Amino acid sequence: MRVSVGLLLFGAVASPLMAQQDVQIQTVAAAPGIHMLVGSGGNIGVSSGPDGVFVIDDQYAPLTYKIVVAIRRFSTEPIRFVVNTHWHGDHVGGNENMGELGALIVAHDNVRGRMSVKQVMEALGRTVPASPKGALPVVTFSETTTFHLNGDELYVFHVPHAHTDGDAIIHFRRGNVVHMGDTFFNGAYPFIDLGSGGSIDGMIHAADAVLARIDGETKIIPGHGALGTRADLKAYRDVLAIARDRVTDAIAKGMTLEQAKAAKLMAEYDEAWGQAFINPNQFVEFVYRSLRAQ
C-alpha cells in the first residue's frame, strides 16, 4: 500500500488524536470504481480510477488519516477533489486536512458562505465557529457542475432549501450511483436544519428530483444510513409527504406545536423511523416550524 510522505507526516501528528478514536472506517462497494465509506458522521462517496480519486464529504478532522488509509486499500492514485454536500461539520470537518493533501475543495456557494462565518444551530443547541481559510471550498457553483473523470460523468446539482440552503446531490451517470448527502436519511426521520434554510417541502422536492432520474438498479449513498435503492428513497419520500400533509392538517385545525406533538401524528411510523438521530417529536417540530414559516 502506497501512502504519500505528506500523509505519513500527517499521521504522525494525528496519532494521539487517533488513539482516542474507536471509529473504524468500513468500505461498501456501490458500483465498479465507486465506494461508500462509513465511519463517524456523514457517509463518504469515493470514485477511483486512472484519473485520480474523487471524494464526496470527509467527516471529522481526526478521522482523515483512517479515511485516506481506507481509500488506499483500493486506490493509490492522488485525491484530486473533495465535494461537500453541505456545510455541517460531520461532512466538512476533514476539509483542511484534505486540502493539505492536495485535494481541491468544491461546494455550493452557500456552503462557503456559511463556513466563512459563525453559525448557530438552534435546534441542536450548537454554535459553530467560522472555519479556517484552509477548510473553505476553493471552487463554488450556484446550480450545477460536472466532473469528467474515471470514465464517468459526475453531475453535481443544487437542490434549494432542502436539508440546508446549500445542498448538492452528485449523480454518477454511468456508474448509476447517487450521493444525496443529508437530503436522504435512509430508514430514519431526517434532521431538517431550518436555521440554515432547510424546509420539509425542499426535502420532498430533493427526493422527487432524484427519483425522476434513477431506475431500479441505482444505488443511493445517503447522508446517514445504509446504502440504499430507489425503493428505499421512495419509501422515505412517502413518509416525508405524509408528515407534511398531516402537520398541514393539524395547523389548519389550529393545533399548537405542543398539541401536534401530543397528537402522535406519525404514530404508525415512529417505531421504525424515529429511533435514530431524530426522534418523533423533533421531526414533527421540524415539519411544523417549516410549514409555519411559509
Detailed description of the structure:
The chain has 294 residues and is an alpha/beta fold. It has one domain (5-231): Metallo-beta-lactamase, Chain A (4-Layer Sandwich), CATH 3.60.15. The chain is built from 10 helices and 14 strands. It has helices at residues 5-19, 64-72, 89-92, 95-100, 109-115, 200-211, 230-252, 257-262, 267-273, 280-292, and strands spanning 26-31, 34-38, 44-49, 52-56, 79-83, 104-108, 119-121, 126-128, 139-141, 144-149, 152-158, 168-172, 177-185, 219-224. The strands form 3 sheets. The chain has a 7-stranded mixed beta sheet. The protein has a 5-stranded mixed beta sheet with strand order 10-11-12-13-14, with helices on one face. Strands 7-8 form a two-stranded antiparallel ribbon. A hairpin with a 2-residue loop joins strand 1 and strand 2 (34-38). The radius of gyration is 19 Å and the shape is globular. The termini are far apart. The model is unreliable at 1-20 (pLDDT under 50).
